[in-house]
């Protein structure tokens, strides 16, 4: 179930995500993006001779996805004074978190990151080459990256025009968290690439753990954002109308709130 190269990917994710010991939140932000990029690069190195064009594309998309996300988060973290101001008190600085808990979070995050890319990994490990699902999944991955990138761009542009107003333009007219939707779309594409390449119950269990895990994280992130926006804009009648009419995460699915689901904690 755990080939040597899988363990190598896990160790790489641990090394990269260890940046979280510098700043607690980096375990799940900078460590996340750059771990995915690192795993994509590592698979290119480990399986270069076995690569088909389809699997090569998937690995490159991991690199593009991870560098884009990690770079975006780094710029926001180090350059955006408004972000730091808004997040003061919202995110733990980690100073009061016991070291043992940090170790547990570090290992858990690294495990999640390696299981997330496991559909492509097992296709390479099993020497299954590319099939129609590889290409369908890759197209979905590209759509996810595009959607997430566009959502981040539109939010930044809207905040520059009016930093005190919630964003309800562009993609934000369709769902309130289009960037998280893009994330879920990307990882759904990765899941699709596994069909015809992932073999047996054990491998599929690993793949599904990664997929369900990141979907849970996205819904948890949507809940945190909803609570924060309620605090910042709850008295605004336009915001109240917005949250009643625009789904929080899934387009055309009438789920307008997840804040009551306290188990969505990550």
What attributes does this structure have?
266 residues, single chain, mainly alpha
Number of helices: 10
Order of helices and strands: HHHHHHHHHH
Shape: globular
Radius of gyration: 19 Å
β content, as a range? under 5%
Task: Tell me the number of structural domains.
Answer: 1
Describe the structure.
This protein is about 70% helix and about 0% strand. With about 270 residues, it is mostly helical. It has one domain. α2 runs antiparallel to α3. The model has no long low-confidence stretch (mean pLDDT about 90).
List the helices and strands and how they pair.
Layout: H1 4-17, H2 30-46, H3 53-79, H4 81-87, H5 99-116, H6 118-125, H7 132-161, H8 178-193, H9 200-233, H10 237-245
Gist?
The protein is mostly helical and 266 residues long.
């Amino acid at each position: 179930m755990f080939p040597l190269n899988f363990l190598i990917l896990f160790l790489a994710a641990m090394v990269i995500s260890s940046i979280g010991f510098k700043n607690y939140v980096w375990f799940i932000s900078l460590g996340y993006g750059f771990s995915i990029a690192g795993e994509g690069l590592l698979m290119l190195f480990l399986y270069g001779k076995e690569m088909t064009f389809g699997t090569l594309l998937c690995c490159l998309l991991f690199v593009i996805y991870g560098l884009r996300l990690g770079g975006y988060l780094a710029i926001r973290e180090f350059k955006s004074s408004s972000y730091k101001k808004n997040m003061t008190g919202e995110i733990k600085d980690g100073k009061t978190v016991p070291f043992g808990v940090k170790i547990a979070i570090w290992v858990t995050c690294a495990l999640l990151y390696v299981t997330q890319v496991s559909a492509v990994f097992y296709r390479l490990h099993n020497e299954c080459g590319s099939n129609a699902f590889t290409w369908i999944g890759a197209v979905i991955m590209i759509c996810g990256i595009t959607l997430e990138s566009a959502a981040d761009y539109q939010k930044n542009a809207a905040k520059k025009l009016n930093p005190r107003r919630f964003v309800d333009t562009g993609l934000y007219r369709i769902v309130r968290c289009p960037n998280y939707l893009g994330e879920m779309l990307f990882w759904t594409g990765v899941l699709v690439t596994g069909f015809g390449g992932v073999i047996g119950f054990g491998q599929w269990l690993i793949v599904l753990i990664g997929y369900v895990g990141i979907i849970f994280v996205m819904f948890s992130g949507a809940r945190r954002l909803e609570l924060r926006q309620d605090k910042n804009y709850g008295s605004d009648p336009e915001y109240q109308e917005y949250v009643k009419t625009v789904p929080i995460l899934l387009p055309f699915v009438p789920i307008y709130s997840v804040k009551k689901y306290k188990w969505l904690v990550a």
